[in-house]
Amino acid sequence: MNRSAEIICVGTELLLGDILNGNAQYLAQQLASLGIAHHYQTVVGDNPTRLKRAVAIACERARLLIFTGGLGPTPDDLTLATLAEFFDTDLAERPEIVADLEAKFASRGRTLNKTSRRQAQLPKGADILPNPVGTAPGVIWEPRNGLSVLTFPGVPWEMKTMWETTAVPYLQNSGWAKGVIHSRMLKFWGMGETTLAKQVQPLLFAENPTVATYALGGEVKLRVSARAESIEAANALIDPVVDEIRQITGTACYGQDSETMAEVVGQLLLAQKQTVSVAESCTGGGIGQLLTAVAGSSGYFWGGIISYDNRVKQGLLGVEASVLAQQGAVSAEVAAAMATGVRDRTGTHWGISVTGIAGPGGGSVEKPIGLVYVGLSSRHFTRTEKFLFNQSLTREQIRQRTALSALNLLRIELLGKNN
Amino acid sequence: MNRSAEIICVGTELLLGDILNGNAQYLAQQLASLGIAHHYQTVVGDNPTRLKRAVAIACERARLLIFTGGLGPTPDDLTLATLAEFFDTDLAERPEIVADLEAKFASRGRTLNKTSRRQAQLPKGADILPNPVGTAPGVIWEPRNGLSVLTFPGVPWEMKTMWETTAVPYLQNSGWAKGVIHSRMLKFWGMGETTLAKQVQPLLFAENPTVATYALGGEVKLRVSARAESIEAANALIDPVVDEIRQITGTACYGQDSETMAEVVGQLLLAQKQTVSVAESCTGGGIGQLLTAVAGSSGYFWGGIISYDNRVKQGLLGVEASVLAQQGAVSAEVAAAMATGVRDRTGTHWGISVTGIAGPGGGSVEKPIGLVYVGLSSRHFTRTEKFLFNQSLTREQIRQRTALSALNLLRIELLGKNN
Lengths: 419, 419
Hints:
Chain A has 15 helices and 17 strands. Chain A is of the alpha/beta class. In chain A, helix 3 packs across helix 4 and helix 10 (about 260-270) packs parallel to helix 15. The model of chain A has no long low-confidence stretch (mean pLDDT about 95).
C-alpha cells in the first residue's frame, strides 16, 4: 500500500459548482511543503453511500485520508457518522466537546440546542481535533493499523486554523512529515517570462533547490524549492540561490512570497521617511485601494484625487483646459500635470498619476485600448512613462496592471534614491 | 450502471496546489445547468498508471467521463495516450488537425515542429473536439457502448470555449442533457441570512423552483432554481417566484446574477441623469475602484478625493480642524463634512463619504475596529449612517463591506427618488 495521502472534499455545493475548491488547493500546498506525497483528490456529495464508496477506494490507494466538509450541525453534515459506519465503530458523545460548545454558545448569549450538540459525537477511539475558531471539531483517528484519518470542517478559515495548530504537529510527530519541501517565491514586475528564464537559465536545471518560472496576471514569479530535513536546512539551500537570482535580475524582483507591491513600496517610503499621494483617472481609486490595503499605510500615504472626469482634472488638480484639449486626457502632458498637481495640493514628497484607456470602449487608432501614461512627480523632477498593454486584456486586467506599474515606477525610483 | 458524469482533472500542478481547480467548478455548474447528474470529481497527476486507475474507477460509477488537462504538446501531456492504452486503441495522426496546426503556426510566423505535431494524434474512432482558441484539440469518443469520453485542455479559456461551442450541442443532441436546470441568483445587501430566510420561509419548501439561501462576504443570496424542458420554460417557472420575493423583500434585493452593486447604482444614476463623487478615508479609493470597474461609468462618476490623512480632509475637502479635533476623524460630523465637501468641490448631484476604523490597529473602547460612518450629500440634505462591522472581520473585509454599504445607501436613496 502506498504511503501517501488523499484529499476527500465532501459537499454537494462542490458538485453543483457553487463554490471553488480552495480547500483542496490549500491542503495540496501544505502536503507538498511537508513532503507528504499525494496522488489523488476526490470530491463527493453529501451522500453516505457514495461517500462510503469513495472511502473504500481511498483506503486502497492511500494511508492518510484528509476530509473536509460535512462536520456541521445540520442533517446533511454526515462525514463522521458515515466514517464511523464504514469503519464499524460507534459514535459517542464527548463531554469535553459538549462543555466547549456550551461555552461557545453562552459567549453569544445562546444555549446549546440538540441539533448543535450533535457535533459532540465522535467515533469511539478517535482523538479530538479542536476547532478554536468555530464550533465543529474534527478528529485524528487511526481506524485501522497504519491508516490515519483527519477530518476538518469545510469553512476555509476553520480548516486552516485547525490544520496549522493541530494537524501539522501531529503529522510531524507521527513520522508522516519526514523532512520538508520548502519554497520561496520571488516576484518580478516589468519583465517577461522568457526574458527572466533566459537570465537565470543555468539555475532552471538545478536539482536541489529547483527553480521554476510562473507567469500570471502580468507578474512573473520564480519558485525556489528545496527538500531538506528542516525548514532551516531548506532555507540554507535556498538563500544563496535567491541571492544569485537577485544579483542577476537587479531591481526587477520586487518582493517575495506574500509581499505585495504596495507593501514593498510602503516599506521603502517608511524607511526613507517619505510620503505619497495619487491622482487616478482610469484606475478610479485602485492605486489608493492597493496602498491602503496595507495596515499602517497612514504612515506614508496621505490620499489624493480621483480625477475620472476632465472637470475634476481641471478643477481639483489644476490640469489646464488647453492641455486637455490639445493633448487629450490620455497623454504624457496630462499625466505629468496630474502628478505635479496632486503633489502640490497635498504636500507629499511624491505624486503618482495614471491616465489611460482601459476599454472596452474609448479606443482609437492613435490612442488604442491599453494605452496608459503614468506620471511621477517629486520636488526635483516630474517624469512620465508610456505603457501599451495588450488589447486582449480585460478592463480589470488593464486597470490592475496600470496600478501595479505605477507603484513599480515609484519603487524603482526609491531604490535609486535619486529623488 | 449510473447514468451520471464524472469530472477528472489531470495535472500535477493541481496536486502541488499551484493552481485552483476553477475548471472543476465551471464544469460542475455547466453539468448542473444541463440537468446532468454528477456524483464524483477526481484529481490525478500527470502519471499514466494512476490516471489509468482513476479511469477504471470512473468507468464503474459514471457513463460520461469529462477530462481536463494533459492535452498539450509537452512530454507530461499524456491524457490521450493513456486513454488510448486503457481502452486498447491505437493513436493515429489526423491530417485535418495537422493542417489546422500548420495554419495556426504559420499565422504566428512559425513552422509546426515535431513536438507540437504530437497534438494531432487522437485515438482511432474518436471524433475531434475542435479548439478554436488554442492548439490542442480534444476528443468526443465512445470507447465502449454507452460510455462517452470528452477531453479538454487545462487552459480555462480554451476549455470553456470548446465546452460551449461543441460539447454542449453534443450533450443535447446525444440525449445526455434532457431538459435543463436553470437558476437565478437574487442578491441582497443590508439584511442577514436569518431575517431573509424568515421573510421568504414558505418558498424555501417549494420543489420546482426550489429556493435556497447563501451567505458570503456580508452579502446574502437567494437562488431560485427550476427544472424544465428549456431555459424559457424554466424562466416561466422562475419569474413569478422572483416577483414574489422582490415584493416581500422590497429594496433589500439589489440585483441578480452577475449584476454588481456598482452596476446597479450606475444604472439608477444614468436613468435619473445624475452624477456622483466620492470622499474616501478608510476605503482609500475602493468605492471609486468599484464604480469605475463598470464600463461606461464616466457617464455618472466624476471622481473624488481620497482623504486618508486628516491633512487631506482639511486641505482638499474643507473639513474643519475643530471638528476633526473634537469629534475625531471617525465621526458622523466628519462623514457629513466630507460628503458635502466633495459634492461642493466637484459639482456632482451626489457626494458619498466614508470614514472608519478598518483595523487591525487603531481601535479603542469608544471607537472600536469595525466602526464606520457613511455620509450622503445632495442639494437638499446631508445625512450619515453608522455601521459597526464585526471585529472578527479582516481589514479587507471591513473595507469591502464599507464600500458596498456606502453604495447601497445611495441606491436606496435613488430608489426612493427623494433627492
